[in-house]
Design brief:
With 293 residues, this protein is mainly alpha-helical. It is built from eleven helices and no strands.
């Protein structure tokens, strides 16, 4: 009897890198937040000190991003501007996320007249282009970072309210909530102890993905003179400062523009990776791969 050779094919299992990507982008985000928090200490020059003899100097070893029309160091101003741009955006996103989520939870659980009225109000806000509506609100309130945040918060909460309402309605008739209601739990306890933890993941992903959009809208208001007012350093207002000299001193616009691009890209990549990581199918796949190891 002749022996037969048995060929065994080894199939390479593609390793899932979602967790490593999430850690990487989380570290990048933390570095960005730390730099923004201690930006004033990292500045090589006073970001508000004017010296007309140094006005519009191109990038050099002494001023790596050049100087603006008043001789102020652009690198120092970009660093200081990160504090305002990033933390004002995070405050704005926190306000719209909390406000919209609470309204959505109440509307989804209680229904009735409150649900109808609040959802029609949200439809009204969503009917207008967001930046145009924010311009109108900011124009009425006047300039300033506080009024810009209020203007964007007014048009930002409906997205989270509708998301939270839809997720609450999906949870409302589940068996575990029926048991919770029969146990005599109060409505606040049901909403914030049982429903909110189950929908928090999707809301968190939406909030992180919204950071980049809100940052650009806040910079847009500052660019149009309805946000941060000069001489305060903020990326949108800095772009507005240098736009008239774009052809002769492009670094005045490129420096804050690149800062916005890098920051928005990091937050968007973090949001995309977080969404992939928290996807139920992806999490099940991760568990299967861990068991095989």
């Amino acid at each position: 009897m002749s022996g037969k050779k048995v060929t065994v094919r080894k199939q390479k299992i593609k390793k899932n890198h979602i967790r490593e990507k999430l850690i990487f982008f989380t570290v990048l985000t933390l570095i960005l937040l730390i730099v923004a928090a201690i930006a004033r200490k990292l500045c090589p020059y006073d970001p508000y000190a004017q010296d007309l003899l140094l006005a519009q100097k191109p990038p050099s070893a002494e001023h790596i991003l050049g100087t603006d029309r008043y001789g102020r160091d652009m690198f120092s101003r970009v660093l200081v501007g990160s504090t305002t741009s990033i933390y004002a955006t995070l405050l704005l996103v926190s306000i719209v996320t909390v406000t919209g989520t609470v309204i959505g939870l109440i509307c989804g659980w209680c229904g009735g007249i409150a649900d109808t009225v609040l959802m029609r109000i949200s439809d009204l806000f969503l009917a207008f282009p967001s930046l145009v509506f924010a311009l109108a609100v900011a124009g009425v309130l006047g300039g300033g970072i506080q009024n810009a945040i209020i203007a964007l918060a007014v048009i930002g909460w409906p997205k989270f309210a509708r998301l939270a309402r839809g997720l609450t309605l999906a949870q409302k008739d589940s068996p575990y909530l029926m048991a919770v209601k029969m146990s005599g739990s109060s409505v606040p306890k049901i909403l914030f102890k049982h429903i909110l933890p189950n929908i928090a993941g999707q809301i968190l992903v939406t909030a992180v993905l919204d950071i980049g959009t809100m940052m650009m809208e806040l910079a847009g208001l500052s660019f149009l003179g309805l946000g941060v007012q000069p001489p305060a350093a903020e990326w949108g207002s800095m772009i507005n400062d240098g736009r008239s000299m774009l052809q002769i001193s492009p670094w005045m616009v490129l420096a804050p523009g690149v800062a916005i691009f890098i920051t928005v890209m990091i937050f968007n990549l973090l949001g995309d990776t977080l969404r992939d990581y928290m996807d139920p199918k992806q999490r099940a796949k991760n568990k299967r791969e861990e068991k095989k190891k």
